[in-house]
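BUG: 3D viewer hangs when loading the predicted structure for this chain

Environment: internal workstation, default settings.
Expected: structure renders.
Actual: progress bar stalls at 90%.

Input used:
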Amino acid sequence: MGEAVAVRPDQVSLGVLVSAVPRDAVNAAAAACGVADRRSGGKLPAHVIAYLTMGLCLFVEDDYEEVATKVTGSLSAWGCWDAGWSVPTASGITQARKRLGPKVLAEVFESVAGPVAERSTRGAWLRAWRLTAIDGFDIDVPDTPDNAEQFDYAGSGDNRSA
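Structure tokens produced before the viewer hung:
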């Protein structure tokens, strides 16, 4: 029997993320949206910012630098991080996320979203129907008029929240 390997939960989450969202899909989405890396060999190319943004959604309790450390460590292990780069600061991440914009992530989603189960996947089908489930999630955004217009509020009456 092989030796057990200890894997951190964040590595599993990021591993699934990177396998489900290939770097080529991120680069193609960035190109389709006219977003180019700021400079050749730049610290924060589009694929890194896309994975950082997705990581921020996975690890909502962590600050920017903690998420950046997790993501860049995993990207390094998978060959998607240049050894000459350093972990970006919160300010650098914010600026790069603004540069990337929401259209790139929407394009990435459209290119990779789809059913995971195949016809041969046990338990994924009930007769002719593919079984599906939708799990809700919350994302915290600042309580600004623009965000209220875009995302509305959860709850109702006195229990509503941004």
